[in-house]
């Protein structure tokens, strides 16, 4: 009888202390995490070449410049703009022939103002294809959107042996419109 009454008490009390377990609730947070400001990869390019019969060494370095205004590109991503330092030295004595730091505003005579607001200085490289007879330094510069290869203004920049700089829009892309060199998209228009 003792066993039977113990079982009765156990079965009666098990319902007393049970808590009803509810299904977990899923909470959706609609607040979007702020994206951090991105930066393009730094680079350091160097080479030796002969221009007008003399040997030169150039060094091109690109780095994000946190002192410049941040740029919000077409996709909405935010980037630090870049500065690019170009140094050209004579190999014979190591003397500096050319030394300049560029940012995108240096190219404002070529790049349309509206496009400039959503663009970065993407890069400057030596343009071996345009070196012709090696009578001058030929560099290719570009201002554009780091997330869209088609949204850029290509610029041909030549430096003569006396240090004079000449810049023109490089017509390497036949699809680039004449309205300033870029295919701009108005985000307020229905693209669908």
Global structural class: mainly beta
Q: DSSP strand (E) fraction?
A: 35-45%
Unreliable runs, pLDDT <50, ≥5 residues? 1-11, 174-192
* CATH architecture assignment name of the domain at 43-169: Beta Barrel
Rg computed from alpha carbons, rounded to a whole number of angstroms: 31 Å
Number of strands: 10
Number of alpha- plus pi-helical segments = 2
**Biggest pleated sheet:** 4 strands, antiparallel
Mean pLDDT: 80
- Quaternary organisation of the protein chains: single chain
- Biggest sheet strand order reads 1-2-5-6
Output the helix-strand order: HEEEEEEHEEEE
CATH superfamily of the domain at 43-169: Protein of unknown function DUF4738
N- and C-termini, Cα separation? 82 Å
In CATH terms, what is the fold-level topology of the domain at 43-169? Lipocalin
Shape: elongated
Helix content: under 10%
């Amino acid at each position: 009888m003792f066993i039977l009454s113990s079982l009765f008490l156990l079965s009666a009390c098990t319902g007393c202390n049970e808590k009803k377990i509810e299904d977990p609730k899923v909470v959706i947070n609609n607040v979007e995490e702020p994206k951090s400001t991105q930066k393009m990869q730094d680079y350091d390019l160097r080479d030796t070449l002969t221009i007008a019969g003399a040997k030169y060494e150039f060094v091109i370095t690109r780095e994000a410049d946190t002192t410049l205004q941040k740029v919000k590109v077409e996709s909405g991503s935010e980037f630090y703009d870049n500065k690019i330092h170009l140094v050209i030295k004579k190999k014979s004595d190591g003397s500096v022939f050319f030394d300049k730091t560029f940012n995108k505003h240096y190219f404002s005579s070529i790049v349309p103002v509206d496009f400039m607001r959503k663009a970065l200085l993407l890069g400057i490289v030596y343009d071996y294809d345009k070196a012709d007879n090696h009578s001058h330094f030929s560099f290719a510069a570009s201002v554009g959107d780091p997330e869209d290869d088609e949204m850029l203004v290509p610029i041909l920049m030549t430096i003569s042996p006396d240090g004079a700089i000449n810049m023109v829009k490089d017509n390497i892309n036949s699809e680039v419109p004449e309205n300033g060199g870029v295919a701009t998209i108005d985000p307020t228009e229905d693209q669908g």
